[in-house]
Amino acid sequence: MKLLLVEDEAPMRQALEEILHRENYDVVSCADGEKGLDEAVSGVYDLLILDVMLPGKSGIEITENVRAQGMKTPVLLLTALGELDDKVKGLDSGADDYLTKPFQTRELLARVRALCRRNVAAADGQLIAGDLQLDVGSSVLTCTENGQQVRLGEKELRIMEYLIAGQGTITPREQLALKIWGVESEAEYNNVEVYISFTRKKMAYIGTHMMIKAVRGLGYELKKA
């Protein structure tokens, strides 16, 4: 997998390069947004990891340019603690995920793995987790063990797409609210819980062995029951 890392803080950039190289990723890095955009639109990368605050062009501007050109390369934004507006703008611009600094190495690697899996699956529109198969184009969720199918609503589809792509990690409730509703408030948190409940019922209907587990105080995890 070939990754582009755009981070202007040299110590952070070097540390991330080392971490990703250890995991056998082919990493190209740069320190400013103009150079980052030139690299991003080349189309040779499997994942873009972009700091939000960059000289020249921001990570959000790079994402907007990439999406405006019709490119679907997954984008992971790195944001400073508490910069909610940047998170919302980033997701609205077309980013797939974000990490708030400071973050743990294992969380970064889990997000990278999830987004790389999503990119591979996107080629035929199929996402798979255990005995679940999600056809993103038709919104159909299938239990591959028994062939039972169910069609998901828009919000259920986005929840399942996000959880399947991020399998093996805990997805914060805040991220689901931001990704699906675009804002952070208690009302949106409640919406997440309501639609998680709807999605669980449809999973039960098709008889899957997978489940959406609520991890108290953290978020949700898709795993085997």
Task: From the structure above, extract its key features.
alpha/beta; 44% helix; 225 residues; globular
Strand order of the largest sheet: 2-1-3-4-5
Please mark out the parts with pLDDT under 50 across 5 or more consecutive residues, or reply none: none
Nearest-integer average pLDDT: 87
**What proportion of the residues form beta strands (DSSP E)?**
15-25%
Radius of gyration: 17 Å
Helical residues, percent: 40-55%
Major sheet, described briefly? Answer: 5 strands, parallel
Number of helices: 8
Task: Spell out the helices and strands N to C.
Answer: EHEHEHEHEHEEEEHEHHEE
The total strand number stands at 12
Gap from first CA to last CA: 31 Å
Which geometry do the CA atoms define?
A: globular
Quickly give the structural class.
Answer: alpha/beta
Describe this structure in words.
By secondary structure, the chain is of the alpha/beta class. 44% of the residues lie in helices and 24% in strands. It is built from eight helices and twelve strands. The protein has a five-stranded parallel β-sheet, sandwiched between helices. Strands 6-7-8-9 form a four-stranded antiparallel β-sheet, with helices on one face. Strands 10-12-11 form a three-stranded antiparallel β-sheet. Strand 6 and strand 7 form a beta hairpin. Helix 2 packs parallel to helix 3 and helix 7 packs across helix 8. The longest helix has 21 residues. The radius of gyration is 17 Å and the shape is globular. The model has no long low-confidence stretch (mean pLDDT 87).
